[in-house]
């Protein structure tokens, strides 16, 4: 399919006789003149006639104001147009991005998240009309939204215009970036309206491991992980010397306990208290069971996971966070990799807890001299297979954060799948290669879906 | 693909050519078989491209991307006073298959997407206006704080909003940040002498109780122009010696308390750090230490292509070459003084320390291409790192082989970001070209 870039001309006086296109364009689109066709933008479809206008340059289209208003088209804007099935002329695509009320207010005040600026310029590049709104702006019955449209000029807001737009066919909902309605409920509502919501959604650790265990291609990346019960505790203590007990639905190192075998002296149980690390030496499995008992009763279920012999960089432990996104052809792609280095003596790599973000080539190059490229390939392969498996079970998703550990032998293990990835780590990395992609792929993927890619 | 650029003779069909962030519709002819790209003479002239030079060409969707356009960020003063160095940069960048130009902060016009700078023209330089480059090699330092802040904001915008990769994201390594960066890692924390920030007089007093030899240095200073050496005398009291700007300081303080009240008056409002001093080995009464040049090779791996030994000027408290020290290459030095204490195993030590420090600083400061590490030995032969320099001089003058690797690395970064932009998307480059269609 070919999409053409055209400038919209919306005349003030309304001749009321359909859309006017230059002959060359009509010919390339293979659409009939003077016959009824549908004009589509987002969910809006209007039947009208296409007229040949010999005075128009080949890259301009005249749409009467009455039609343009209902289709959400704006004059003077460069957009894509293409033909669908020989009887529909589609515009844009029109893509929605749902954000929180607060974020919208910030944007209107000229204080936008960089990700959104990047998305807006990515949209402009490919003739996509990207509109921002919050959940209250959607009028499902009328299939309409009150949106704000960004006209980015070299990375800054020059104008933020509000207006009515048709309901987009595809709505991105990066719910990791602020509060908003439950994506699940929204997805159900949207499905009845025929539109696709691409949302972030929290994935519990055990949920992810349960799904992945059933997929042969990713099994080798999974460390021993099980719900914490007296039975799994006993088995894990027989099989491993280093164990982690983690709350299933919390992250950032809160509530994490580590259990390490101390030879003949029994086991050491460590956790981070309010004033620093708390250590307890427990002489036998019975004492361990007793010490761990409160975790078994905790409101949030716990899981037990083998400790991984992570590789180190200059003596500090590290893991890698891989941002995987669907690209403009609907395929999972690695958009960026950040190595996250723990502070001295710590196992926590999050930048919010004193971790440091560094380029993976440098970190792996230092830790695996001569083998870094092979390790990077393994990291990419693991992240992509895991993303595909999660997407197949919990999709459709448009981006996932995959945290992987690299072991001293260079093999890769899954630590966690993050359904609401923040791009903080990657932004701190300041890698133009990654930055180019992060804001771009979601827009390209959404556009691909609107234009007829597999929407599931 | 790497192509040879020649002037276009005769006519050719016009097509879209992208150079840096700019896009132009011009006639060109690409012979992909013989790897020759013919471009109009006027275009070559306008962008400072020499005939027969190599460039990279990347057939993207609907356009031919050529370049990479390599912006070398310098101070205008460097441009005026350092013509030989500029010529080396220019020659080596072209040899690496890039189109180089030089610019400074004032020439950047982000809103218009262009930079006015200079290009080498034979033995001289001339003004040239070009689009935003594909990669920037940052060689500029800013002693002035306002300029430094403006340059930092501009680097950030070019990197994070225009997505231009940098060789040397950091323009300098302030001494305190360097200390903290090296203390972060078990492998490097033992390399740095204890350092505190100057300002808290109680902390200073305790520091001076612990150490008999101490250096007070301006946090952002360079060339040893703001360094005081404080040494506890055997008879009690302290001798103070060094340089603050143009002012030479040489005095004695009877007590530590007296010293603690004297120093703040001397240093003014700048940020300073206090570092434990290492007693450097001496030769013929002169102290010596090392400047280790650590540079990326063309593939992005760190290498140590040059180690200089600096035999200090007895009249200066530092071993900076700009303060009268005599430089030797490590080979020369080891040959001449092979029996001197500390010389055995020196190269191995310097190489190891260079790699460690480069890895730690790059992890902390972001992408770098080169650093200079100041290392000295204590009487036991243990290596210590005093500070690192983000814009090391290329020895007495730039050496082609050292510059060549950096330029190859810059080209590599640029090509990687071309691929990053193109792969997997719908095939459209920024900025939006005025083209006929977006093939999906």
Task: Explain the overall architecture.
The complex is a heterodimer of chains A (456) and B (440). In chain A, 29% of the residues lie in helices and 34% in strands. With 456 residues, chain A is α+β, with helices and mostly antiparallel strands. Chain A has 4 domains: 4-92, Barwin-like endoglucanases; 95-199, Rossmann fold (3-Layer(aba) Sandwich), CATH 3.40.50; 224-306, no CATH class; 309-450, D-amino Acid Aminotransferase, Chain A, domain 1 (2-Layer Sandwich), CATH 3.30.470. Chain A has a 7-stranded mixed β-sheet with strand order 2-4-3-7-6-1-5. In chain A, strands 8, 9, 10, 11, 12, 13 and 14 form a 7-stranded mixed β-sheet that branches. In chain A, a hairpin with a 2-residue loop joins strand 18 (267-273) and strand 19. Chain A is elongated and about 90 Å long. The two termini of chain A are 20 Å apart. Chain B has helices spanning 41-46, 76-81, 83-95, 145-160, 175-183, 186-189, 201-210, 256-267, 330-336, 346-365, 400-422; strands at 2-7, 14-19, 22-27, 29-31, 36-39, 54-60, 63-67, 69-73, 99-103, 108-109, 114-121, 124-131, 135-138, 166-167, 195-197, 213-218, 226-232, 238-244, 247-253, 272-276, 282-283, 286-296, 302-311, 326-329, 370-377, 383-389, 437-439. Chain B has a 7-stranded mixed β-sheet. In chain B, strands 15-20-16-17-18-19 form a 6-stranded antiparallel β-sheet, sandwiched between helices. In chain B, strands 21, 22, 23, 24, 25 and 26 form a 6-stranded antiparallel β-sheet that branches. In chain B, helix 3 crosses helix 11 (400-422) and helix 7 packs across helix 8 (256-267). Chain B starts with a strand and ends with a strand. The model of chain B is unreliable at 426-440 (pLDDT under 50). The chains are: A alpha+beta (456), B alpha+beta (440). The interface between A and B is large, with 57 and 51 residues.
């Amino acid at each position: 399919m070919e999409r053409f870039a055209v400038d919209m001309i919306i005349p003030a006086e309304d001749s009321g006789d359909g859309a006017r296109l230059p002959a060359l364009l009509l010919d390339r689109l293979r659409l009939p003149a003077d016959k009824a066709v549908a004009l589509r933008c987002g969910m809006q479809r209007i039947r009208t006639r296409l007229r040949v206008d010999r005075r128009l340059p080949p890259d301009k289209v005249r749409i009467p104001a009455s039609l343009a208003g209902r289709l959400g088209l704006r004059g003077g804007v460069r957009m894509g147009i293409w033909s669908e099935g020989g009887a529909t002329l589609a515009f844009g695509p029109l893509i929605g991005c749902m954000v929180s009320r607060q974020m919208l207010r910030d944007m209107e005040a000229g204080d936008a998240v960089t990700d959104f600026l990047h998305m807006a310029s990515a949209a402009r590049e490919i003739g996509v009309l990207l509109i921002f709104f919050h959940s209250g702006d959607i009028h499902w019955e009328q299939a309409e939204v009150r949106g704000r449209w960004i006209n980015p000029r070299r990375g800054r807001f020059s104008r933020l215009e509000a207006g009515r737009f048709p309901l987009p066919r595809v709505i991105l909902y990066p719910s990791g970036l602020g509060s908003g309605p439950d994506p699940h409920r929204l997805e159900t509502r949207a499905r009845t309206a025929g539109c696709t919501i691409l949302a972030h959604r929290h994935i519990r650790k055990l949920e992810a491991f349960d799904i992945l265990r059933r997929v042969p291609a990713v099994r080798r990346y999974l460390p021993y992980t099980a719900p914490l019960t007296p039975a799994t505790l006993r088995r894990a203590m027989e099989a491993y010397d280093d164990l982690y007990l983690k709350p299933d639905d919390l992250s950032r190192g809160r509530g994490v306990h580590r259990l390490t075998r101390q030879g003949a002296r029994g086991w050491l149980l460590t956790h981070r208290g309010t004033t620093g690390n708390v250590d307890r030496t427990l002489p036998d499995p019975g004492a361990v069971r007793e010490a761990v008992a409160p975790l078994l009763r905790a409101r949030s279920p716990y899981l037990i996971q083998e400790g991984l012999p992570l590789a180190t960089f200059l003596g500090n432990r590290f893991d890698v966070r891989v941002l995987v996104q669907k690209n403009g052809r609907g395929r999972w792609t690695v958009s960026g990799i950040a190595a996250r280095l723990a502070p001295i003596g710590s196992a926590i790599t999050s930048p919010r807890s004193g971790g440091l973000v560094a380029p993976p080539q440098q970190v792996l190059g230092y830790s695996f001299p001569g083998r870094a490229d092979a390790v990077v390939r393994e990291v990419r392969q693991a992240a992509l297979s895991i993303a595909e498996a999660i997407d197949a079970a919990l999709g459709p998703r448009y981006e996932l954060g995959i945290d992987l550990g690299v072991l001293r032998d260079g093999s890769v293990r899954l630590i966690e799948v993050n359904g609401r990835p923040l791009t903080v780590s990657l932004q701190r990395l300041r890698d133009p290669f990654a930055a180019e992609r992060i804001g771009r792929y979601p827009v390209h993927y959404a556009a691909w879906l609107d234009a007829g890619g597999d929407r599931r | 693909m790497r192509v040879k650029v020649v002037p276009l003779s005769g006519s050719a069909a016009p097509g879209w050519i992208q150079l840096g962030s700019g896009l132009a519709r011009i006639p060109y002819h690409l012979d992909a078989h013989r790897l020759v790209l013919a471009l109009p003479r006027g275009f070559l002239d306008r962008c400072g491209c020499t005939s027969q030079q190599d460039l990279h060409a990347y057939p993207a969707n609907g356009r031919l991307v050529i370049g990479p356009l390599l912006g070398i960020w310098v101070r205008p003063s460097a441009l005026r006073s350092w013509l030989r160095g500029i010529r080396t940069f220019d020659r080596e960048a072209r040899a690496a298959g890039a189109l180089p130009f030089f610019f400074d902060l004032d020439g950047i016009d982000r809103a218009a997407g262009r930079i006015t700078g200079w290009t080498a023209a034979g033995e001289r330089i001339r003004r040239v206006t070009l689009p935003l480059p594909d990669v920037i090699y940052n060689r500029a330092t800013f002693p002035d704080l306002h300029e430094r802040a403006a340059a930092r904001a501009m680097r950030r915008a070019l990197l994070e909003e225009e997505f231009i990769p940098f060789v040397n994201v950091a323009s300098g390594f302030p001494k305190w940040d360097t200390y903290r960066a090296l203390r972060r890692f078990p492998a490097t924390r033992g390399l740095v002498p204890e350092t505190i920030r100057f300002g808290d007089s109680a902390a200073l007093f305790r520091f001076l109780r612990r150490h008999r030899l101490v250096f007070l240095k301006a946090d952002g200073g360079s060339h040893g122009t703001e360094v005081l050496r404080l040494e506890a005398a055997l008879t009690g009291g302290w001798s103070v010696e060094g340089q603050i700007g143009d002012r030479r300081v040489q005095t004695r303080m009877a007590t530590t308390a007296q010293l603690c009240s004297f120093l703040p008056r001397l240093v003014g409002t700048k940020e300073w750090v206090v570092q434990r001093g290492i007693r450097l080995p001496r030769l013929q009464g002169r102290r010596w230490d090392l400047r280790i040049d650590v540079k990326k090779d063309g593939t992005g791996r760190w290498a140590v292509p040059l180690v200089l030994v600096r035999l200090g000027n007895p009249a200066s408290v530092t071993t900076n070459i700009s303060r009268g020290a005599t430089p030797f290459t490590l080979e020369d030095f080891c040959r001449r003084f092979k029996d001197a204490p500390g010389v055995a195993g020196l190269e191995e030590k310097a190489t190891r320390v260079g790699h460690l420090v480069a890895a730690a600083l790059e992890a902390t400061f972001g992408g770098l291409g080169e650093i200079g590490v100041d290392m000295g030995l204590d009487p036991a032969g243990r290596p210590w790192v005093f500070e690192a320099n983000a814009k090391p001089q290329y020895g007495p003058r730039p050496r082609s082989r050292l510059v060549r690797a950096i330029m190859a690395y810059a080209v590599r970064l640029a090509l990687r970001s071309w691929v990053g932009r193109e792969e997997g998307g719908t095939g459209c480059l920024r900025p939006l070209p005025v083209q006929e269609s977006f093939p999906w």
